[in-house]
Amino acid sequence: MAEYPLTSALMARGAEFLGSKYAILCGAMSWVSERNLVAAISNAGGFGVIACGAMTPELLDTEITGTKALTSKPFGVNLITMHPDLFDLIGVCEKHGISHVVLAGGIPPKGSVEAIKVFGAKVLVFAPTLALASRLLRSGADALVIEGMEAGGHIGPVSTSVLAQEFLPSLAGDFIVFVAGGIGRGDMIAAYLEMGASGVQLGTRFACASESIAHPAFKAAFFRANARDAIASVQVDPRLPVIPVRALKNKGTEEFTAKQREVAQLLDAGTVDMGQAQLQIEHFWAGALRRAVIGGDVESGSLMAGQSVGMVSKEEPVAEIIAQLMAESEAALARR
Ligand SMILES: Cc1cc2nc3c(=O)[nH]c(=O)nc-3n(C[C@H](O)[C@H](O)[C@H](O)COP(=O)(O)O)c2cc1C
Questions:
Q1: Is any ligand 1 atom within 6 A of the Cβ of residue 201?
Q2: Which atom of ligand 1 is least distant from the CA of 104?
Q3: Phi, psi dihedrals of residue 314, rounded to the nearest 5°
C-alpha cells in the first residue's frame, strides 16, 4: 500500500502528468532553482523546475546538462515569456528532450506553446483570469498553475484561496490544475486537493532546504522572518505599471521605490520608452535577487519570499520537507 494512500489517491492525476511520485512541484526560483535543488526535489519524489530567468541559451544548456548528471527523474524548465531569446531557449529544451516546460511571466507569445509541443513536451502556463485560463487550456496548454498573491516573487493581486474557488470548480474536472502561493503545511495541500487540484507548487518552503545553494545569510533572514515581513512592493508612479514583487522588507525595498522614481523621470524626459522602462525594472530585480541569494547581501539585495516564510524555521533536507508535507496532508485527510 502507498505510504500516504489518501493523499496519493488525490494526487494520482497530477503525479502521472508530471511523471513523479508526488504531485508537489518546487516552483522555479531565479538563482535558487539550479541543478542542486532541482535534482534534490526530483530525487525525493517531487518535481523540480530549473529557473531559466535571464540565462542565455548557452547557460541553460549547461544547467540542464548539470541537472541530468544529478538525477534520472523528470524535471521541468521555467522560461520567462518576455525573454528576448525565448525560442532559442525552447530549442535548448528540445535538444535535451525536456519533458515539461513552464511558461511564466506573461501570456505565452504566439507560436511558443506549439514550438514546445512539437517535440512532445508538456506545457504548463499561468493565467490571471478564468477566461484566459480556459482559452489557453483549450488551445494547447497541458496544465495550469494558479498562483495567489501570498507567494514569493512576482505576484498578481488575488489571494490563492479566492483563485482556488474561482478556477477549480470550472477547470479541475477537465484539466490539470496546480495551486501555488502561501502553502506551508500539508493541511493546506489536502484542502486544495479536495477542491479538485491535481497537485501543488511551493517555493518559499523549499528555498532554504539543505540542498539549496542560497547563501547562509539569505537562509538566516528567512528563518528569522514572520509572515508579515514578506511584503508586496508598491507602485509609485501611476504611468509606470510595475508587477508587484513580494519580498522581505529591507533597505532593498526602499531602493526599489527610488529606482521606480528614477525610471519614471527617464520616461518623462523621453530617454526611454515604456518597454525599456519596464525592462529596467525587471533587471533591477534580477540583479538584486542575485546579490541576496548568491552574494548574501541581505541589506540591499532582494529577499523574495512568500507569506509562508513564517513557517520556515530551519534548514532541512528536501526529502524531509516533502515527507512532512505528505504526512500532514495524510493526517488532515484521515481526520475528515
Ligand atoms: C526567491 C524566489 C524567486 C522566484 N523566482 C521565480 C521565477 O524566476 N519564475 C517564476 O515563475 N516564479 C518564481 N518564483 C515563484 C515560485 O516559483 C513559486 O510559484 C512561489 O514561490 C509559490 O509560492 P510560495 O512562495 O508561497 O510557496 C519565485 C519565488 C521566490 C520565493
A1: yes
A2: 11
A3: -155, 165
Domain borders along the chain are 5-213+311-335, 216-307
- Nearest CA-CA partner of 333 in 202, 200, 191: 191
* C-alpha dist (Å) from residue 65 to 96, 133, 161: 8, 32, 37
CB atoms within 10 A of CB 151: 27
pTM comes to 0.97
Q: From the CB of 48, is ligand 1 less than 6 Å away?
A: no
CA 13 / ligand 1 centre spacing (Å): 23
Phi first, then psi, for residue 31 (nearest 5°) are 70, -25
Q: Is the pLDDT of residue 1 over 70?
A: no
What is 72-134 written as a DSSP string?
Answer: SS--EEEEETT-TTHHHHHHHHHHTT-SEEEEESSSPPTTHHHHHHTTT-EEEEE-SSHHHHH
Cα of 175 vs centre of ligand 1, distance in Å, is 23
pLDDT at residue 274, rounded to an integer: 87
Q: Separation of 335 CA from ligand 1 center, angstroms?
A: 31
pLDDT score of 182 more than 90: yes
Q: Which CATH superfamily is domain 5-213+311-335 in?
A: Aldolase class I (3.20.20.70)
Whether 144 and 164 have beta carbons less than 8 Å apart is answered as no
